[in-house]
């Protein structure tokens, strides 16, 4: 082997080592990114679950508000009816006199 071939072989070995080191660093970066992706997917799943839970709570609160409003209306209607019955009783009492 000539000196030229030895020099070319040495340059080739250095470049192969550099390429292998670059490949290793890319593999590590890919592994890091995969771990981050897993973490973000977990966070997204948790956030979606929380959104669904909050939607359910909101629906329940709206339903309770509707029921509460209906109960309030019923209470007001009962009070009006009671007032009307008392007025009718008074009128009947006046008529019987």
Tell me what the structure shows.
The protein has 97 residues and is an all-alpha fold. The protein contains one helix and no strands. It has one helix at 3-96. The mean pLDDT is 89.
What would you report as the Rg, rounded to the nearest angstrom?
41 Å
Question: Which residue ranges are poorly predicted, with pLDDT under 50 across at least 5 consecutive positions?
Answer: none
Give me the count of strands: 0
Order of helices and strands: H
Helical fraction equals over 70%
Mean pLDDT: 89
Count up the helices: 1
> How far is the N terminus from the C terminus?
140 Å
Shape designation: rod-shaped
Query: Strand percentage, roughly?
Result: under 5%
By helix and strand content, what is the structural category? Answer: mainly alpha
Largest sheet, if any? none
Give a quick precis of the structure.
The chain is mainly α. The chain is built from one helix and no strands. The protein has one helix at about 5-95.
Please describe the structure with a list of short key phrases separated by commas or semicolons.
rod-shaped; mainly alpha; 97 residues; single chain
Write the layout of secondary structure elements.
Blueprint: H1 3-96
